[in-house]
């Protein structure tokens, strides 16, 4: 991946590892004080030949694919730090098939310890 970064050095600010995110963002909601669902996408219509229903009502297969930063790899230009960022806005994806464990809290850490014992 360092070779990928070097090859694209002039056109990117950073390279970040990502893994496919199985959930669809169009189907994520918040619940307001009246117990109504609020869509992050504002109930936008999906305009296709077969349907014009809301994006949240579409089959997963026709919605966009998403990727999430897996935290395994971040390579960035050191001068980008002067702009108060470690990624910049030209981030090249390095897609992984992460079998790793993302540790964000004590529960994640404990799960990682248990999985190592198996």
Give a quick set of tags describing it.
118 residues; two-stranded antiparallel ribbon; 2 helices; 15% helix; 25% strand
Walk across the major sheet and give the strand order: 4-1-5
The strand count comes to 5
Tell me the number of helical segments per DSSP (H or I, 4 or more residues long).
2
Return the structural class. Answer: alpha+beta
Spans where pLDDT lies below 50 across 5 or more residues: none
Task: Write the element-wise H/E pattern from the N-terminal end onward.
Answer: HEEEEEH
Helix percentage range: 10-25%
Mean pLDDT: 87
Query: What fraction of residues sit in β-strands?
Result: 25-35%
* Main β-sheet description: 3 strands, mixed
What is the terminal separation in angstroms?
Answer: 30 Å
Label the overall shape: extended
Rg from alpha-carbon coordinates? 19 Å
